[in-house]
Design goal:
Elements (H helix, E strand, L loop, with lengths): L6 H32 L3 H29 L3 E5 L9 E6 L5 H10 L6 E3 L1 E2 L8 H7 L4 E2 L4 H6 L6 H13 L5 E4 L8 H7 L12 H10 L3 E10 L7 H5 L5 E9 L14 H29 L3
Length: 301
């Protein structure tokens, strides 16, 4: 363990290990992604997908390795029992920091299939990582606002079509579809701007969840509802690298997805849209109360 080192030096070491890990595994990833692109035969693509997923899992395992080496975080985790590595999962979580992604990957790697995230289209420009996410078939979405769609109505529904095509790819290999229902990271400014009715959460969006359930509903074993709490304050990524995140609380709840939500028409059926949104709001109310309780027990700041 290197956590006895000064925090800034620890951050530099952790950052270097992170970068080296990225370079090693993305180099392998790109080789097989290019082969998959050049040889689009169904049987070969399935084989390349299997290899690409194993590479990603090894990448995450090595991330967990440098985290153990450089961090002295106390983990309080419940709910990882009886998960199925060979199943399909819908995964939802609250979202506060980029650290959330490392937390979930660390805890869920090889317990469930590889997490696939819906990403903003701009992120494909991120050096190296953008291409890595593309190689892993992460869907990139354009988040058009209301005013933009008023001026460009032809763009309406294109994100849903992008998600539909991505989810159809997920049907061929066990996958965990990850959706941050809030759509963005929680901040007090965003919370105040929304005038959110939740104390620790932004308002959830149910469209992406509904579409994934529509396309893959028969595949999903269940939904994992993940709650992440940082009792000593939400960390920036650099804080995490510097070993300043002393405690992380995670609760994983397995939820059976109601049958009526598996194949509904979110865009065309107003009653269905209202029903699934009400269900999501109820989940968020329960999560908000859970966060409050966990923070109180932990003596959160």
């Amino acid at each position: 363990m290197l956590n006895f080192l000064p925090s800034s030096l620890l951050g530099v070491i952790a950052g270097l290990l992170l970068v080296v890990n990225v370079l090693i595994w993305t180099s392998l990833l790109f080789v097989f992604a290019i082969l998959k692109f050049l040889l689009p035969l169904p049987q070969l693509r399935r084989g390349f997908n299997w290899i690409i997923h194993r590479i990603a899992e090894n990448w995450i395992t090595c991330n967990s390795g440098w985290m153990r080496l450089t961090q002295k975080t106390r983990w309080d985790v419940q709910g990882l029992e009886d998960l199925n590595y060979h199943g399909w999962y819908m995964v939802v979580s609250n979202h506060q920091s980029w650290v959330d992604i490392l937390v979930m990957q660390h805890l869920l790697n090889r317990r469930i299939p590889l997490l696939k995230f819906f990403l903003k289209s701009e992120l494909i420009r991120v050096p190296i990582m953008g291409l890595a996410w593309w190689a892993l078939d992460f869907p990139f979405l354009h988040r058009h606002g209301f005013e933009y769609l008023k001026k460009h109505p032809e763009q309406k529904g294109k994100d849903f079509e992008t998600m539909r095509r991505a989810c159809e790819k997920f049907a061929y290999i066990p996958t965990s579809v990850m959706n941050f229902l809030e759509g963005t990271r929680f901040t007090k400014a965003k919370h105040d701007k929304q005038n959110s009715e939740y104390k620790f959460l932004l308002r959830p969006k149910s469209g992406g969840l509904a579409l994934a359930l529509n396309v893959l509903g028969d595949k999903f074993n269940s939904m994992l509802d993940i709650t992440i709490v940082y009792p000593d304050g939400v960390p920036e990524f650099w804080d995490f690298l510097c070993g300043k995140v002393k405690r992380i609380i995670v609760r994983v709840r397995t939820i059976e997805i109601p049958q009526q939500f598996l194949h509904g028409d979110y865009e065309g059926d107003q009653a269905f849209r209202a029903a699934i949104h009400k269900w999501v709001q109820q989940l968020w109310e329960e999560k908000d109360l859970q966060i409050e309780s966990l923070r109180k027990k932990a003596g959160a700041k």
